[in-house]
Model the fold of this input.
Amino acid sequence: MNKAQTAIAQSLLETPKKIVIVGHKNPDGDAVGSTSALSLLLKSQGHDTQVIVPNDFPDFLKWMPASEDILIYNQKVERANQLIKDADIICTLDFNSFTRVGSMEDALNQATADYIMIDHHESPSDYAVLTYSDTAMGSTCEMVYHFIEAMGQLEHISEAMATNMYTGIMTDTGSFRFASTTATTHRVIAGLMDAGAVHHEIHENIYDSSSPERLKLLGVALKNMRILPEYKTAYITLSQKELDENQFKKGDTEGFVNYALSIKGIIFAAIFIEHKKDNIIKMSLRSKGDFSVNLVSREHFHGGGHHNAAGGKSDLNLTETIRYFISILPRYKDQLLAHA
Ligand code: 5GP
Ligand code: MN
Done:
């Protein structure tokens, strides 16, 4: 965060404020971690804070410190709308466009609060008085750490805050292995461990908490995987029936797409998941190197995200979505084959 941005933050936070902190729809570890950590910091400084997310988050994140204080918008609409209306400041973390908050969009559009954005996704919208956006960052949690550092408050990081930030950095960097992980990321992690984050407990809480059903669903996903070596592409499908047969719970498919990307020679991977209730196919896209799944998602699947990790949706049925996906691959053939 630069000096001008720090000055804006300092002046906004000089006196106690009513602050709402918002994460994106289908919150992940980075969203829960960054919003909870910032909320705990601002609360410790006398602000009145409340984290709100559009919908519920998966059970494997429910152990996170202060996650029980998060208000789930679609479960308490009236109370959440009142808090948003009354807020002096609204911090939006881990997203950069109101289209990422589902049914909260109207409330955010109507709010009179000053907005602070802290986010690492591409193409930020222009709604905040303080836009701290850095697409080179591997996670919003790392940015929250830099925010705290710029504000001169590193010594105020509690064990709970450190645990939250460590979790978000770990989950958004694929446990520190994606290209976005830097030496600075590791220095931040060291700072968080000094502040009390216990890495092996966090890792166990996140990665060793599968239900047997989740692993059976992974088996189905791997069986359904198709490889298109001529496009260095692999994709997975899961139908609603397959989800139902394996007692699917929110978050169960997290990380499945990475198996497709782990095949030697594959640089583009996708998972397509049927959501019968909403009549859509949700997808996660992943890539290696120069190939941008952010652009593929923006162009074809009403989505976006990062260069190597993006998400989107399709209104076609599962079969048609796959047919469409395969039909666009020739357009990217040169880019896909350019990768060594
Ligand atoms: P995931 O595939 O893990 O759901 O998401 C990968 C990345 O893409 C995340 O950073 C997420 O915020 C972003 N993303 C996922 N779904 C969407 C979407 O529908 N629209 C946009 N703009 N970004 C998305
Ligand atoms: Mn993130």
